[in-house]
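Consortium newsletter contribution from the modelling node. Members have asked for a concrete example of what our holo predictions look like. Here is one, prepared for the protoporphyrin IX containing FE complex that several groups have been discussing at recent meetings.
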Amino acid sequence: MKKLESREDIELLVNSFYAKVIKDETIAFFFTDIVKVNWDLHLPKMYSFWETILFGQMSYKGNPMAVHFPVNEITAMEKRHFEQWLKLWKETISENFHGENASMAITKSENIAKLMSYKMEMARKI
Ligand code: HEM
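And here is the predicted structure:
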């Protein structure tokens, strides 16, 4: 078990996470059917996103909330979907990493998922 401390570590984490996501009964369809994700573009974005959050690299420039609204308009992104996303994310972290950054990656994802879930729910009420 190692610490989460480099871009290579993040790449391993993100790749292993999406390997689970695309096989997942509850959330895979968002990535394979609703949006046909271009992985060559999406994965590097996610590496930069986490690098920015965990190491303050500022390599990610984007609006992570905004991209989810159009998805939510096609198919509701519900609490159970976020719970499953989080379950897979936490599972992938604990299978590969330990230490402060690994814990931070969990805490931050929980906070963002909570906020995102709330925003998606609100957007459906308008
Ligand atoms: C049910 C949960 C979620 C689903 C189904 C989902 C799905 C998606 C999809 C389909 C995309 C678009 C990919 C593309 O256009 O190629 C995306 C992008 C993204 N997601 Fe999520 N997502 C979820 C939760 C989260 C959470 C909790 C986070 C953050 C912790 C997150 C962070 C991002 C980021 C950073 C992007 C890229 C944004 C950009 O293009 O700049 N997602 N997600």
